[in-house]
Amino acid sequence: MSEKCCGNQTDIKKEAASSCCDSKPTETVQQKNSCCGSAASESKMEVSCCDTDSKKFDYLLWCSAGFVIFFYAVHLINPSLPLAYADKIHGLGHASFDLVNTMAWGALFGILMVALLSRLPREIVISALGTNRGWQGLLRATGAGVLLDLCSHGILMVGAKLYERGVSTGQVMAFLIASPWNSFSLTLILIALIGLTWTLLFIVLSIAIALVTGFIFDVLVEKNVLPRNPNRCDLPEDYQLVPAIKNELASIRITPKSILVFITDGIKESRTVLRWLFFGIVLASLIRVFVPEDIFGTYFGPSILGLGVTLVAATILEVCSEGSTPIAADIFNRAGAPGNSFAFLMTGVSTDYTEIMVLKETTRSWKLALFLPLVTLPQVIMIALIINAL
């Protein structure tokens, strides 16, 4: 479509966006002035199907936050409630108070980390990750996954984009498995919930699973069992990572306004994280109050039955990594099953139906998507059994 006014010509071009959902277009608007003396300008707007409409009320975020704030206040005020369920209400207040105070400092650090990472150009991330096959590429992909502070649903969008940019299938799988729950903010939260030693052990084991899984996927691709990535990296051939980082650092200007914008952006970018974090607190609080500890220990305890129930629960519950962390901590502390706790965190990554569907849409292969749980689940189960036996 084109229209002319005083020599102005506006060309509107719509291209299909290659996003995780492939449902909305990317619009590029170019304005050219021929006689009005203004410079040419170009603006580009990308719309992702996975983004939430800013005008749409986020029921999950605000209902979960309202629940947490209400019961947190109940604990602080400690009112006398002549109700039949007063003990349950006070129990929810105590659980919310305990979880919020435990997780708050990690969440605050996480918001700052998200704000920092949101400032990095995507080209720097992709260049740092590389497209090298073999252990070097897998190590870089796993390291990027551990450092990138995004929830499991947010990491899917990044993983899908990396696949479209030409990153090997093994690297993408290693990136996805290493990313969701052991990001910077969740690592801090997990340290507060289960301790430093167990958190570090969980991280090392998840990295090992990510590397082994990535290697297996690359081998399966080489043997033509799984399809190759048809995409190629679209970074410029002369692109250099170190100069790009130097230019980015040189462009930083620290002012009171920039600091305020930095913090505000961090809170906005963390909205998805906070949504699931609050929801996880709600679930963990309800579990603490309404599920007796003896029943919890029986069905989620360090046994074959407990591990099986944990795997089923992790598969059914569509909870983001921020939401699964407090639940996994409850399995660790109340059920006394560290292996089940690890399995809950890892199985949520491997068998999440959202992740499988996004992989299928991105790779156009059901076979490749279903191989993710097929390759990872045996490793998770074996390691969980070993941890429970310690």
What does this structure look like?
The protein is an alpha+beta fold and 390 residues long. The chain has two domains: 4-45, no CATH class; 59-389, no CATH class. 67% of the residues lie in helices and 6% in strands. It is built from 17 helices and four strands. A four-stranded antiparallel β-sheet has the order 1-2-3-4, with no helix packed on it. A hairpin with a 2-residue loop joins strand 1 (4-5) and strand 2. Helix 4 runs parallel beside helix 6.
Overview in brief:
The chain has 390 residues and is α+β, with helices and mostly antiparallel strands.
Task: List descriptors.
single chain; 390 residues; alpha+beta; 2 domains; 4-stranded antiparallel beta sheet; 17 helices; 67% helix; globular; disordered N terminus
SSE diagram, text form:
Elements: E1 4-5, E2 8-16, E3 25-33, E4 41-45, H1 59-77, H2 86-118, H3 122-129, H4 135-147, H5 152-164, H6 169-178, H7 184-194, H8 196-222, H9 241-250, H10 256-269, H11 271-290, H12 293-299, H13 304-316, H14 321-333, H15 338-351, H16 353-363, H17 366-389
Antiparallel strand pairs: 1-2, 2-3, 3-4
Radius of gyration: 23 Å
* Largest beta sheet: strand ordering: 1-2-3-4
Tell me the number of strands.
4
The biggest sheet amounts to: 4 strands, antiparallel
Structural class: alpha+beta
Number of domains: 2
CA-based shape:
globular
For the termini, the CA-CA separation is 68 Å
**Helicity range of the residues?**
55-70%
Instruction: Please trace the helix and strand order, writing H or E for each element.
Output: EEEEHHHHHHHHHHHHHHHHH
**Low-confidence parts:** 1-53
Percent strand: 5-15%
How many distinct helices? 17
Residue-averaged pLDDT, rounded? 75
